[in-house]
Design a protein that fits this description.
The chain is mainly alpha-helical. It folds into two domains: 68 residues, Serine Threonine Protein Phosphatase 5, Tetratricopeptide repeat; 74 residues, no CATH class. 74% of the residues lie in helices and 6% in strands. The chain has a two-stranded antiparallel ribbon with strand order 1-2. A hairpin with a 2-residue loop joins strand 1 and strand 2. The longest helix has 20 residues. It is flat and about 35 Å long.
């Protein structure tokens, strides 16, 4: 429902609905649903350019995912925190966050889950401007020199 409102351009109603949904999940104590709702809220506010809010919400979601042992969810949060850092020009911080996301994802995969987030974290890391000087273009992709 939030995404429908967002797509129609009713951002205030969408954000309000995200907060209402989050409050309901908190009242029920469903930590997995809370973390996922926080993650969705972070994507929404990030898309609106509210990076400080998105960062805080992603950090909370990441902590909950960690508490639940959901390495894949934690990796997504770290990767998106890296995206925010990169968008804000904090390239060293972005690189560190992408590396942490990769390792969280790798732990998730070795534990038997097939998260698929390692390639996303690696792509994010590779496109980070901090690595471009170390790479050479090959077609439309980059490879380490």
């Amino acid at each position: 429902m939030e995404n429908t409102r967002r797509d129609r351009g009713d951002y205030a109603a969408a954000q309000s609905h995200f907060h209402e949904t989050l409050a309901r999940w908190r009242a029920l104590g469903d930590k997995d649903a809370i973390a996922r709702c926080l993650h969705n809220l972070a994507n929404f506010v990030r898309g609106r350019g509210q990076y400080a809010c998105a960062r805080a919400v992603l950090e909370e979601a990441g902590l909950i995912f960690e508490e639940l042992g959901d390495k894949s969810g934690a990796a997504w949060c770290l990767n998106q925190l890296g995206d925010i850092a990169r968008e804000e020009g904090a390239l060293a911080a972005a690189r560190e966050l992408y590396q942490n996301a990769f390792w969280h994802s790798a732990k998730s995969t070795t534990a038997g889950a097939s998260s698929g987030h390692s390639p996303i974290s690696l792509r994010s890391l590779a496109t980070s401007e901090t690595l471009r000087p170390l790479m050479r273009p090959v077609g439309r992709r980059f490879r380490f020199s």
